Every structure is written in C-alpha cells, then in structure tokens.
Amino acid sequence: MPFLDNSFDLVTCQTVLIHMKDPVAVIREMTRVLVPGGLLVIVEPNNIATSISNIDLKTPISEVIGLLELQLICERGKMNLGEGFNSAGPCVAGWLSELDIEEIESYMSDKTSMLLPPYVSARERAIIREAGEMSQRNFWIWNREDALRYFLAGGGIQDAFDARWNMARARVKETLSEIQKGTLKDTSAPIILLVSGRKKMPGAKANSHRETDGTRMDASQGAQQD
User: Fold this and answer.
1) What is the Cα–Cα distance from 27 to 192, expressed in whole angstroms?
2) For residue 126, is pLDDT > 50?
3) Are 110 and 216 within 8 A, CB to CB?
4) Do β-strands 192-199 and 34-45 pair in parallel, antiparallel, or remain unpaired?
5) pTM attached to this predicted model
6) Which of 146, 184, 203, 206 is within CB 3.0–4.6 Å of 178 for a Cys-Cys bond?
7) Treating both helix axes as pointing N-terminal to C-terminal, what angle do 144-153 and 158-181 enclose, rounded to 10 degrees?
8) What is the DSSP letter of 209?
C-alpha cells in the first residue's frame, strides 16, 4: 500500500481476503501501516457453512450433496488458481496469530436475512432485486464461465459440471418463482466472522488472544459474499 509504516490507528477490510492469492501477505501489509497498539479489524465469511445453514429437508439428499460438491470443488479450484479461498473466515484468527498481532478476538455476526411475504421491507426488496439481476446474468454463486473454470481447476470434469450447474440454476429459478408467487418464506443465516487484534508494541512479549464471552457482533452485513 502506498503509505508509510505506522500511519494509521485503525486498518480494516471486509470480504477482501477471500479473493487474495496470499492473504497472510495482505495482512502483513495491513499490519505494516498500523501504529503500534493500533487496531486491526477483518471481516470474512465462511460461505461453505452458509450454504448448508438453511437446508430444506424436503429437498432430495442427492441434490443437496450435488450442490455442496459443486461448491466445494469450485472453491478448491478458485484457490488452486490463486484467486482466493471463498470460506476464509475461520482461518483469519490463525493467520493473525502468526504475525505481530496480540489481543486477538473473534466474533460471529448474528445478522440473518429474512424473506417473508409480502416482502415490503427495503432489505427484502434489495435482496430480491439483486437475486433477479444475478439470475439474468446467469449467476449461481459465480457466473457459468468462472464456475466452470474453478470446477475444472478443482479436479472436476465437464460432464459432471454440466449436470450440477443445471441443478444449481434450476434451484435459483425455483426460488425466484416462489418469490413471484409470494410463497417463499426463508431465513438464511450467513456465517460471517469479525476478527480483531492489536499491533504489538515494541518490546511486547509473546502473542496473546482472548476468547469471546458470547458478546454478539451485529455490525456485519448478512449476504453471502463471492
């Protein structure tokens, strides 16, 4: 970053490390520009866990497993290509512990995303609008081109991808259809972690961390990040 060492009291990022080839190098650079004793705050999701947070038990198990396998292979391929790990949230505290960071704390957002007919709140309208726009662009979590690229890089094969992609897109269209009919009642619980720590003061002893005491963090956004 184009800043001098020890320039800022607070350095923060949100859903950035999931796109980085070397997230530890990014955190190291964030730490460099932080003053000793300054606060580092990082917000990153666990998108794999989010995807199974609101499974409908009526959905065939084979479909649930197929979609989860598609996502896992794509996430592995994305990482293999050096484009980041989409579920990096649980890794952040460990990364901080390897650097000059102390007083490490980790919280999980308690924010959920509800869709209840007649979908009148500004948040619900925003979620529905985004879902419609993404579907028109042939998106699932990623667009088809990127998803296929990640799938192949993760060890998948074309035929297997086509079947699972069609399944994923059918699920998206079914959800939008239920919204249009006014029958969808859904609460998703995105897994988003907020991890903080302070840059070690000169001469400080070994790294330390504190476990959270159940205090809830409600300042993080609730949508799955890509």
Assistant:
1) 18
2) yes
3) yes
4) antiparallel
5) 0.84
6) 184
7) 140
8) B
The share of the chain scoring above pLDDT 90, in percent, equals 81
The amino acid that residue 55 corresponds to is: I
Reported as a pLDDT band with limits 50, 70 and 90, residue 221 is: very low
| Residues 187, 112: Cα–Cα separation, whole Å | 7
Name the CATH code of domain 1-46+88-111+190-226 (choices 3.40.50.300, 3.20.20.10, 3.40.50.150, 3.40.1490.10): 3.40.50.150
Q: For the chain, which residues make up each domain, given as ranges?
A: 1-46+88-111+190-226, 54-83+113-188
Average pLDDT over residues 25-52: 96
Distance, in Å, from the CA atom of 102 to the CA atom of 93, rounded to the nearest integer, reads 10
Q: What gap in Å lies between CA 215 and CA 226, rounded to an integer?
A: 27
Report residue 23: phi and psi, to 5°: -60, -30
Structure tokens at 18: 């999931």
Does residue 118 have a cis peptide bond before it, meaning omega lies within 30 degrees of 0?
yes
Backbone angle region of 127, left / alpha / beta, with phi > 0 → left and psi within -120 to 50 → alpha: alpha
Q: Dihedral of CA 44/52/112/224: which sign?
A: positive
Q: What average pLDDT does this structure show over 32-49?
A: 96
pLDDT tens-digit series, residues 164-209: 999 999 999 999 999 999 999 998 889 999 999 999 998 766 555 5
Question: How many residues would you count in the chain?
Answer: 226
